[in-house]
Design a protein that fits this description.
134 residues, mainly alpha, 50% helix
Amino acid sequence: MAERVNSGALSSSRSAFAAIVASLCALATAVVAAPQPQPASERPPHAAARRATRAPAPPRRPPEQRAPQPPAVETPPAPPQELPPLDTSTPPPSLPRASRERMRQCATQWMKIRQEGRTAGTSWREFATRCLTR
């Protein structure tokens, strides 16, 4: 009984191999029978056919109708004006000495006056000098 199973498996593998060989032969026959591509000299020139469908370019303008070209080289920007030297003979102005709490109170008053629009041309330094010396 074991011989029958082996002989059956062998015959099925031979038939599968024969089917593969037959399909390869059919494929080779189809490739050989297929039409051969035309040589390049007999093919239509595709690029030339595409160019022929485009609209022609507009004619060039005569030189007198062209817009003037801007200068190729730009002029460098002018150097900045020099500022006068700082006067270091006197120390910069400073506010009077005051406690941190007093400074906070003056700042709060200044913000309130400024929001109400009652500064009347007074700067913070002038207001703070008067407020901190009180």
